[in-house]
Amino acid sequence: MLLFATAASAILCAGTVWSSSAAALGESSRVEIRGVAIDGLDEPRETARRRLAWEVRKRTSIETRLRPRRARLDDPTLFETPMLYLAGDEAFEPLSEAEVVGLRRFLELGGFLLVDDATGGSSSGFDGSVRRLLQRALPRDPLRPVPSDHTVYRSFYLLDRPVGRVRGPGSLEAIARGDRLAVVLSRHDLGGAWARDDLGTFTHPVVPGGDGQRERAMRLGVNLVMYALCLDYKDDQVHAPYLMRRRGGRP
Amino acid sequence: MQALSFAVPGGLATVVVLALAFTAIVAWGIRETRSLPAPRRRALRALRVVTALLAFACAVQPRFVHETIQEIEGRLVVLLDGSRSMTIRRGGESRWEEAMAALEGWRGDADAAELVRFGSATTPIGWDQLGDQEPRDDESRLRAALEELASQDDLGAVLIVGDGTGPSDEGDPELDGLKVHALPVGGERAMRDDAIAELQADPVAFLRGEARVRVVVRSLGEGGTIPVSLVREGSVVKEAMVDVAEDGEAEVTFSFTPRRLGRAIYHVRIPRAEDDAVPENNERSFLVRVTRDRLRVLLVAGHPTWDVRFLRSFLEADPSIDLISFFILRTTSDLTMASPDELALIPFPTDELFREHLGSFDVLLFQDFDFGPYQMASYLPRIRDYVRRGGSFAMVGGERSFGPGGYAGTPIAEILPVTLPPVGTPSERQLALGAFQPVVEPELANHPLVALSPDPSASAAHWARLAPLEGANRVEGAKEGTQILLSHPRVRDLSGAPLPVLTVGESGEGRVLALGVDSSWRWGMTSAGASGDASGHERFWDRTLRWLARDPALDPARITTDRERYGPGGRIEVGGWLRNDAYQPVEGELRVEVESATGEVVGRVPVEVGRGGAIEATARAPLEPGAHRVVARREGDDEPLATEPFVVEAGGDELAEPRPDPERLSRWAEESGGQVFASGDRLPPLESLDATRRRSTGTVEVRPFSGWVALVLTLGLIALELFARRRWGLR
């Protein structure tokens, strides 16, 4: 396999490649960033998921559903698409046991949940509610910081740290199940950086970094979707030496 | 014969404690009566002793057990050793000839005893067939033969005529009262012989990996330094010198590295000395099946999808799979908004994958992958040739697969099991949208890719519980000679037949598969959400990968042998299953043949197919040492249904220990009350041999102090002693 990796690193002739365009085999073929619906909790950045889906389709080979739906955690259709996005800016009431069980099964069966704290703060009511929910769903699996060399920071773009509408903490938090991150928790208000109104205007200013920070927030969103689909693909032997060389030896 | 035991908890320890306690009570009673007049003192002391003894007996409950024996005057069987160790000679005469000479003398007594031959199994033979017999059995299963005979109730005694050899781990038989007489042949144990006493080899080795064979060399006689060689195809692979003590053993382990896939025969040899009693055991052979250590799979995906994600996760999690995956993460039509240095992307290493290393993969998977944008047209002929030479290829559906992937008219279309729509067919005609539950073709329901359970009704129920699939690739139809395992319940292919969803076939020496959907992942997560069972996806892909890689366990026809090494003429137990390509039992008259290394058929037995295609047969190994095979064929058809190789060794296990074991026979005879004869002696007539079987019919247990009489008597004596004590002034 070393031979593979070495040769792969040497080939730099990507050339002009165009994907064929055809109708999908069905909506289930398209990647949906499905929102989690919780009673009493409004989605603070309504257009964020649509925007992220559009950006992912524009920037990568992933076919996304441009009008993603929402579902409750006790909805039987929860298992129709393996990626969920839960955003909020306020505390919410404890969920029913059926919802907790639904989330647990979703994650155990291979689902991926991205939690986005829209307050961008360190100890919001939403943050507390989410942590209590995760504690109930996966009591043995704690949230831990995601190290800066994790695949999630190089699943598509090379990133140094997470940023969203706010600069926020220097790392994401995540719950790992085996080698896979099943839950990623961001306290950077990613959706705040992604959201645009119907006229295409960004709805929230990004602080303190301006448009550069907004772009990095968008890249992190793309990376997270790519990670949900490819997991540790970038850790494959084919890729690791090549990426290390591009990063100047950094892991 | 009686045995004494005690029915008291704690056993002998409790008995000892109680004995000490009752002794103390007696001593105390004797001491108390010192002041009484002599007659009263003697009376009370006697009473105390008797009472204590009786109470002790009641407490410890002695138990006497004796065996009851039934004596039966039964039949006599002469048990003749027919194994190859009987061919060993001493002083010009073989053990077999020695035995024959003795049996000839008993021919006149034929009515007094039946004759049974043993080796790998027992076979009754007539006295008049004695001259036709030859010692060719590859095993000496004497213990099993005796136990089989002992199960015959009317058999009284057995006269063993043989050398007493047997497997080293063979214990003593359960004779159940059967009397054993013995006529050992072969003389004393002392002999001069160098031998490979044991050989343990890895039956499976990995290509270019280290394999081992452990060899034990024995030297009967003077001992010394003996060279040991490992040989393959006439060339010495390894050699070692071992120092063996007089009548001793020494061990050597060879490591070797197979460099070719498939079956390989190796030999281990030591030199043959002029005075070597058994030169056949100076060489042993073994077969090694050389495989790859792990299944090498190349997965190429046209873009990340849930189907790609779950298939890759399955492949990654399987430790028996060495996975190389490559996903197209972006095309130049995608606007990444970043410079190449900001992207974690590498170019598609097409040349490396499809030119340099293609042949090293066992399975190649194209998952929703279109080759056109990646200048891959020049590699497609290589992929076709790779498959036709024995590789495996699967195309998994999606909007970039099959016709929409541009494969029509390419070398890939030549090997696919389905015919693609012609170039120019509108895309919408090449896709069938909507959810559907695939239909398992009834006549192929036993195929391992779709048989989710051995029970057809359970398998059908399992399929009904799986989540529906979403959309399918439309093709022109399945090619002739392929198998449609799953089809669409409503949509027709472009030829008007039900749309094939899962089609398998062969192209040249390789296997090919077309799965026209990109939603098989729903058999895992989505099914589990509805029914709780997530195994459908994993099970399907596990079977699919194994089928593509020609896992023998999934072959429709397969035969097995009970061992890989036999002696000349050894008994081969053949098993396995014979099913047709639809995994239904093969019909018609079938036979199992033994083919020698030169292709000559040296044995043939008819077989009948049982439930699920299972077969059982017994055959004989060729007499010539070397690599041979067992072949299953349909009558009138030369094409093999299945084959299995084996090795014939000149010596083998049977001659690895050539020394006779008269002590073993003598011990069994002595323990069973039988007689031991020497072959040179004047032998008594068979009818004079004691054929009385002493058989245990059970045991009788007596507990004399377990009844109420002993208890009442004890209590009465205690009361009497108390009365007398009070009467005579003691407390």
Describe the protein in words.
Helices cover 31% and strands 12% of the residues of chain A. Chain A has 251 residues and is of the alpha/beta class. Chain A has a single domain (29-246), classed as Rossmann fold. A 7-stranded mixed sheet of chain A has the order 2-1-3-4-7-6-5, sandwiched between helices. In chain A, strand 1 (34-36), helix 2 and strand 2 form a beta-alpha-beta unit. In chain A, helix 1 crosses helix 7 (240-246). The radius of gyration of chain A is 18 Å and the shape is globular. Chain A starts with a helix and ends in a 5-residue tail after the last helix. With 731 residues, chain B is α+β, with helices and mostly antiparallel strands. Chain B has 5 domains: 2-61 and 703-727, no CATH class; 71-189 and 659-697, 3-Layer(aba) Sandwich (Rossmann fold), CATH 3.40.50.410; 193-292, Immunoglobulin-like; 295-553, Rossmann fold (3-Layer(aba) Sandwich); 555-654, Immunoglobulin-like (Sandwich). Chain B contains 14 helices and 38 strands. In chain B, the strands form 10 sheets. Chain B has an 8-stranded mixed sheet, sandwiched between helices. Chain B has a 5-stranded mixed sheet with strand order 7-6-3-8-9. In chain B, a hairpin with a 2-residue loop joins strand 28 and strand 29. In chain B, helix 1 (12-32) runs antiparallel to helix 2. Chain B is extended, with a radius of gyration of 39 Å. The mean pLDDT of chain B is 91. Classes of the chains: A alpha/beta (251), B alpha+beta (731).
Going by CATH, what is the homologous superfamily of chain A? Domain of unknown function DUF4159
| Fourth CATH level, the homologous superfamily of the largest domain in chain B | Class I glutamine amidotransferase (GATase) domain
Class from helix and strand fractions of chain A? alpha/beta
Specify Rg of chain B, calculated over alpha carbons.
39 Å
Tell me the span between the first and last alpha carbons of chain A.
19 Å
In the CATH scheme, the class of chain A would be Alpha Beta
Low-pLDDT residue intervals, each spanning 5 or more residues of chain B: none
Oligomer: heterodimer
Give me the count of strands of chain B: 38
Radius of gyration of chain A: 18 Å
